Amino acid sequence: MKPIVYLRCFKGIVLREALRFFHQKERFFSALVRPLVWLGIFAAGFRSVLGVAIIPPYETYIPYEVYIAPGLIAMIQLFNGMQSSLSMVYDREMGSMKTMLVSPIPRWFLLISKLLAGVFVSVLQVYAFLIIASFWEIIPPVTGYFTILPALIFTGLMLGSLGMFLSSAIKQLENFAGVMNFVIFPMFFASSALYPLWKIEETSEWLYYVCFYNPFTYAVECIRFSLYSQFNFEYTAGIIIFTVIFLILSILGYDPARGSLQKKGGS
Amino acid sequence: MSTALQIKNVSHKFGEFKALNNVSIKIDSGDFTVLLGLNGAGKTTLYSLITRLYNNNSGSIKIHNFDVREESSDALKNIGVVFQQPTLDLDLSVEENLYYHSSLHGLSFADAKERIEEEIRRIDLTEKLKNKVRSLSGGQRRRVEIARSLLHKPKLLLLDEPTVGLDIGSRQMILKHVKSLCKKGQLAVLWATHLIDEIDKGEKVVIINKGKIVESGDVIKIVKKTKQKNIRDAFNKLVGVKV
User: Fold this and answer.
1) Nearest chain A CA: its distance from B48 CA (Å)
2) pLDDT at B78
């Protein structure tokens, strides 16, 4: 198959996701409202409770709003990744995922394209959030608006591929609500999104290790450093490793001969 | 005449339940073949295997000589599918849905535009092209799905209970349209249904029951062989129910 065929397919999948996104305005607003509620209400209440010491990449004391901004950006991507996999479960049940899977283009390419289309949408949401967040004086250096982009692509891919793997493993739509409770919330709370890891270590050592090995922590920290135009090798490498693992699992999950689709599809 | 679809000795299980049992079907180019069976007979499972949504572990499925398992890309290129469940994106327009499908088959924008215009004209819905799918009736949505399944010019069209839930007028319109496609070109059609009145005299029928092909051939031959008055009675006798 010629490369142009792949390109056309990729363009089509991204365009569909973008059109769906723009047609469903409520989805855009709810994606923005969620982190803004955290920023406007939760952070305002907690800023006096939690003191944040100077930790990299920050060079000075920062308000709590500034600290949780990268966590909220990662939350946008987490929800987006889960939502687009939710749409895959929904699509698969409703049938439109089937139309994609019966395309002659290799399935791994279709799934990665679908993932990247989801990442594209999440990046739009993040930039909209950053614009609004500037009213809370969350203003990174100008270069940060550019250096965050590659980080967003990687973290979006990681969280999207996690969602995709889960969607391949979930048979029915109802079960996904459970995954939201058992995946999204634990991932978000057991991470460095709302409090720095050293604070957690002071309270509970085992919880610290849970947070430390949580892929979401890597997403939050990677975004945090990139937003201040700094590169952190450890977190970036972690993201890449997690992405590769989740991606392989999801491609296997959607492989009719091997994955969970096959288990569900019988033999 | 070339063979559009050749299924040989395919069986499929869900746990202990045998959904398909040693199924073999052959359809030539230009044939309109009805796959007739009650709900749960194994029609959708068979379609899922032909389209590689499920993997066939036994027997072989070939589309224009391309093995679905070994040469899935070449095999899938030749198939157009209308699934039992609606698969259009309700929030997108008819045109956007059709462009999306064209891109999944790697069509260029110019080719897609030309084919969309051609297919939408054929189903007489040109004026609805810019409308959201949500605003269309059930029958119109089905016609759009058929138009969509033909955009990449497949040689085999698979339709899984395409008229379920539609009114009589829409059913007849869709059936007539698909049959005319068969007559015009070299398109082979496998039409799965449980509605016996969709079968005309002289057509080919494959009767499936509890995962097994119980009879196949043209309607007149089956009626004669079962010594019944019509295909309904023949089906009732073969399947052991009264419909």
Assistant:
1) 9
2) 93
Q: What is the mean pLDDT of residues A81-98?
A: 72
The answer to whether B102 contacts chain A (CB < 8 Å) is: yes
Residue ranges of domains in chain A: 3-261
Q: Which domains does chain B have, with CATH numbers?
A: 1-78+162-243 (3.40.50.300), 87-153 (no CATH)
Give the mutation candidate from B103, B133, B142 for the A interface (greatest A CB count, under 10 A): B103
The answer to whether the complex's ipTM is over 0.95 is no
Q: What is the pLDDT of residues A104-122, one digit of tens each?
A: 999 889 989 989 999 999 9
Q: Do B86 and A95 touch (CB under 8 A)?
A: yes
Compute the residue count for chain B. Answer: 243
Residues of B in contact with A110 (CB under 8 A): 104
By Cβ distance, the residue of A8, A24, A256 closest to B107 is A8
Least confident of A238-252, B71-85, B159-173: B159-173
Q: Residue ranges of the alpha helices (H) in A205-255?
A: 205-213, 215-227, 233-253
Average pLDDT of the segment spanning A73-78: 94
Among the partner-chain residues B14, B72, B101, the one whose CB lies closest to the CB of A266 is B14
Provide the residue type at B238 as one letter. Answer: L
Pairing of strands B79-82, B156-160: parallel
pTM: 0.84
Residue of chain A nearest B106, judged by CA positions: A5
